[in-house]
Design a protein that fits this description.
Layout lengths: L1 E2 L6 E2 L1 E4 L16 E5 L8 E4 L4 E5 H29 L3 E3 L4 H17 L12 H12 L10 E8 L2 E2 L4 E6 L9 E6 L2 E6 L19 E7 L3 H13 L9
Parallel strand pairs: 4-10, 8-13
Antiparallel strand pairs: 1-2, 3-6, 4-5, 7-13, 8-9, 8-12, 10-11, 11-12
Helix pairs in contact: 1-2, 2-3
Bound molecules: zinc ion (ZN).
Zinc ion binds next to strand 6 and helix 1.
Length: about 240
């Protein structure tokens, strides 16, 4: 028995994975490992082991998270990735469950924060970890500028870069303690703002909003320019935030 990180009850804990298993399906490797990018200059890419688990959640809470994972799988894998592969264009969905899809993305960020694994060591949400815990436990809908999200399916010369991972890390630019986390999971680039943020931080506003979901499509090698956006915005004083 130990404290479940989601419901905080003393329970028997399951061996929980941090990112869902299905995100590693494209990582074909004899040694059950995969390569993880490191976007910081002067740092090398790393070889990571697949299938590492941590005892974090009780059975009931595993089921809560699984609901979010299942919906994320449906949208990303059953629909978006296939559509993007066929059209070679960004993907738009105006008939999706905003609350559930956002909970899926936020569950990735939250699990990365509570994880002690090396891959997720730079994800440190501080007080927002507790805020996200309540949002995930209760399945709450968050306003569009609270934890805004921006998503890209990346490709290499027109081939989806499935199986590509990049270590989660905070964006270089911060404003009033606000942080944007970036990571790549199975070729999908995620930008997630922490807490209430200005949507101006994101080039075209949040792409996960109640009206529609948009997933961009861009060359993996152009990632540096995406990351630089934040540095530029900060430099120009455009990285402003909403006050509640
Ligand atoms: Zn629990």
């Amino acid at each position: 028995m130990a404290e479940c990180r989601l419901c905080l009850n003393d329970k028997t804990l399951c061996k929980s994975h941090i990112f869902p298993e299905y995100m590693y399906a494209h990582c074909y490797d004899d040694n059950h490992s995969y390569i993880e990018f490191n976007a910081e200059s002067g740092k090398y890419n790393k070889r990571r082991r697949k299938g590492i688990y941590e005892e974090l959640l009780c059975r009931d809470c595993e089921l809560i998270i699984q609901k979010y994972e299942d919906y994320g799988k449906h949208i990303l894998y059953d629909v978006a990735k296939q559509k993007i592969e066929a059209t070679k264009k960004s993907y738009c969905n105006e008939d999706y469950d905003y609350r559930l899809f956002k909970l899926f993305v936020l569950s990735l960020l939250w699990r990365a924060s509570i994880s002690t694994q090396d891959s997720f060591k730079l994800a440190l949400l501080g007080k927002y970890e507790e805020e996200l815990r309540k949002i995930l436990l209760n399945g709450l809908e968050t306003p569009v500028n609270n934890y805004p999200i921006y998503l890209y399916q990346t490709h290499i010369g027109g081939n989806q870069s499935n199986g590509v991972f990049m270590e989660i890390h905070p964006a270089k630019s911060r404003f009033d303690g606000k942080t944007v986390y970036q990571f790549i999971a199975d070729g999908v680039f995620f930008f997630v703002g922490v807490g209430v943020q200005s949507l101006k931080t994101f080039r075209h506003g949040s792409w996960v909003n109640p009206e529609r979901l948009q997933i961009g499509y861009d060359e993996l090698t152009k990632l540096s320019s995406l990351v630089d956006i934040f540095a530029r915005l900060h430099h120009q004083g455009k990285f402003s935030v909403y006050e509640k």
